Amino acid sequence: MLVDFILMVVFAEAITELGVKSEFFHPFREWLFSKRDSPIFNFIHNVFDCGYCFSVWAGIFSVILMLFLNYKVIYYFVLCIVVHRLSNLFHFMVDRVRG
Q1: What's the domain range around 36?
Q2: Three-class SS of residue 32?
């Protein structure tokens, strides 16, 4: 249970970074940002513009996924995202050590 919890914390952090800062979601964020006249799109814009706000929703999504971790497909999806994030952190540390 503790390992699953840690897994979901890293997962929530990883999808927050992907949603708020990645180039992959950049076209989606730009499209959302152009729709400021709608209250719904304005709310979604604010969520994607704020890492703290996005992480609240990412945490909720992580807890919901945690309920279904016994399904292999969901578990491996979460594991792929976590490995991606941890490899990015490891890459960052290696770059700092090399100078």
Answers
A1: 2-98
A2: helix
